[in-house]
Amino acid sequence: MFNPAAIVKDGLVYLLYRAEDHTGEGVWNGTSRIGLAWSRDGLTFERHPEPVLSPTEPYELPGGCEDPRISFVDGTYYLTYTAFDGITARLCLATSTDLFHWDKHGLLFPQFDDGETYQWTKSGAIVPAKVNGRYVMYFGDTDIWIAFSDDGIRWESEPEPVLRRSADPAAFDSHLIEPGPAPVLTEEGIVLLYNGARLITAEGGDSGKPYYSMGQAMFALDDPRRLLRRTTHSVFDPSTSDEVRGQIDFVVFGEGLVHHRGVWLLYYGMADSRVGVAAFSERGAEPFEALEGLR
């Protein structure tokens, strides 16, 4: 289990996490489904016994439903997820009013299919409020593009990326970039945490292994296409043994960010094998200690 989305509802933190079985062979490791868990303190979770989203469509099999991101806008939960058929990853959308029951709305960008090949469109993060009367999404897994919607279901993408990989081969985000959790609206702009990768030489001399860390970018409130600034160095890197060794080595991959009881909690995938959490408190106290009394 790894790569979870997160949201707060009725005082509880809910995780929608990617759960993978052991049926995989070849280029895919196993079929993924989306599970649901909840917690009062954001640290100790109770799991729903069955998946809340499972593969049902041809483009979702055998790989399954992967890497969710969630936003809540005007009474509806919007869940983007990756459908993987074992060859191509396609971005899909589901909606819910209770987090347990989901309606699928299919492929988000079918126009990218030319009949023979399909451009990868995985990783979509929806801004959790309308901007200038429209829904806004950042998406992509090489560079990051933007898309707009009038109803949250049908989306139109802009032709050019709004955030590109770094041109410096040594930069943390030189190989690829993908949106992380739902963006955060601030007085200064729209803050997007994103996942970046660079290529490293692994132990034993193997070259070209991706090393995943995280960065941040800020876009203008009056025009979500306009990049204001971005981090030049990563803000979160693999360091623990669970982040350095796993199904894919050297990975922290953030997809869930919530503000809970005065603490920011970032939920992330650890080496494509486990779920971790990192915390930050504006009040200067130790953030995990601030949550201890909730258990």
UniProtKB/TrEMBL annotation:
Gene3D superfamilies in the record: Glycosyl hydrolase domain, family 43
Keywords: Glycosidase, Glycosyltransferase, Hydrolase, Transferase
GO MF annotation, one: glycosyltransferase activity
Family: Belongs to the glycosyl hydrolase 130 family.
Matching PANTHER family: GLYCOSIDASE
Name used for this protein in its record: Glycosidase PH1107-like protein
UniProt source species: Paenibacillus mucilaginosus 3016
